[in-house]
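User: Please fill in residues for this 285-position structure.
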C-alpha cells in the first residue's frame, strides 16, 4: 500500500500494516500507480504523486520487491497542484489527469527516454468547484471525477474523443459533501465505483458502467475484538479484486480514517475485506 504523508513524503506498508519504506520528498498530496507500463521499449511499474511545494509530478519507479525510487520531478502548469489519477491506455504508455484548487484539470502523456521522464500536455478542462478525487476505468477509457460540493461526473479518458463531464451521482440523497476519494473494483462479471461520502462518513457503491446504477451505501464500524475503531471523515481510498488470501480472498478496500480513536492518535488507514462489503450490499460478483 502506498500512502502520502501530506507534510513529509511517501510511505509504503504491507498487509499487516507494517511500514516498509519512507521517501522524504516533501509535501506529497495524492498518489496513484500502474503496473507493467510500456515506456521507452521497456515494461515498468510506476507511481506518480502531486508535489505541492514544486507544483510538480513526482515519478517513482517500483522494482520487483516493491521498493520505490524517486526517479523524476516533472513541472506542471498548475499554480496550486492538488490531486491526480493515472490512465493506462490499452495501446500502451501512461497518462495522468492532474487538478488544482481552481478546479482545473490538465491531461498529460508521460514520456520517457534516456534523459528521464517528461509530460506532454494533451488537453485541459475546468470543473465548477474543487475536485481533488478522481479515478480512471482503463478498460472502458472513462474518467470519473469527484467534485466535492456537487457530486460525481464522468467523461471520456481518451483525449481524442470530444466529450464534456456529465453527471453520474449528485450530492443529495446518497452523497453528502464533501465527495472525496474514488476507486473501481473489477469483479468477475460486475465492476463497481466506490466513493467516499465524507460529510456523513459513508461509502457509496455504484455500477461502474452506464447507467451507473446506485447499489447502496455502507459505513465501517468499530471492531472491538480486534481493537480497531470505526472510520470517519475519509479522504482517500483504494480497492482491488486481487486474491490476497484469507479474509482478503475476494480483494479488499483500503480507506483513510480521519480520526483514529482506539486509542486517540493520528489518522491512519483501515483494511476491509471486499467480501464483507459485497455481503452487506448483496453485490453480484
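Assistant: Residues filled in for all 285 positions:
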Amino acid at each position: 500500500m502506498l500512502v502520502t504523508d501530506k507534510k513529509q513524503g511517501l510511505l509504503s506498508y504491507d498487509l499487516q500494516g507494517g511500514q516498509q519504506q519512507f521517501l522524504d520528498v516533501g509535501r506529497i498530496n495524492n498518489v496513484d500507480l500502474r503496473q507493467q507500463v510500456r515506456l521507452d521499449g521497456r515494461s515498468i511499474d510506476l507511481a506518480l504523486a502531486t508535489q505541492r511545494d514544486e507544483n510538480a509530478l513526482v515519478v517513482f519507479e517500483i522494482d520487483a520487491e516493491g521498493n520505490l525510487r524517486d526517479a523524476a520531478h516533472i513541472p506542471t502548469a498548475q499554480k496550486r497542484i492538488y490531486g491526480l489519477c493515472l490512465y493506462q491506455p490499452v495501446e500502451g504508455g501512461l497518462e495522468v489527469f492532474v487538478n488544482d484548487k481552481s478546479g482545473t484539470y490538465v491531461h498529460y502523456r508521460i514520456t520517457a527516454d534516456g534523459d528521464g521522464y517528461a509530460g506532454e500536455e494533451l488537453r485541459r478542462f475546468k470543473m465548477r468547484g474543487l475536485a481533488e478525487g478522481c479515478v480512471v476505468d482503463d478498460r472502458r477509457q472513462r474518467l470519473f471525477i469527484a467534485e466535492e460540493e456537487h457530486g460525481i461526473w464522468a467523461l471520456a479518458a481518451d483525449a481524442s474523443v470530444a466529450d464534456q463531464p456529465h453527471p453520474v451521482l449528485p450530492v443529495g440523497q446518497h452523497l453528502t459533501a464533501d465527495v472525496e476519494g474514488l476507486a473501481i473494483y473489477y469483479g468477475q462479471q460486475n465492476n463497481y465505483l466506490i466513493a467516499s461520502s465524507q460529510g456523513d462518513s459513508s461509502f457509496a457503491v455504484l455500477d461502474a458502467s452506464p447507467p451507473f446504477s446506485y447499489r447502496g451505501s455502507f459505513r465501517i464500524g468499530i471492531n472491538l475484538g480486534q481493537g480497531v475503531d470505526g472510520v470517519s471523515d475519509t479522504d482517500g481510498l483504494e480497492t482491488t479484486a486481487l486474491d490476497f488470501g484469507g479474509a482478503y480472498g475476494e480483494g479488499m478496500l483500503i480507506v483513510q480514517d480521519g480520526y483514529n480513536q482506539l486509542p486517540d492518535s493520528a489518522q491512519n488507514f483501515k483494511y476491509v475485506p471486499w467480501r464483507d462489503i459485497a455481503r452487506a450490499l448483496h453485490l453480484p460478483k
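For context: Residues 132-285 form a domain with the Neuraminidase fold (CATH 2.120.10.30).
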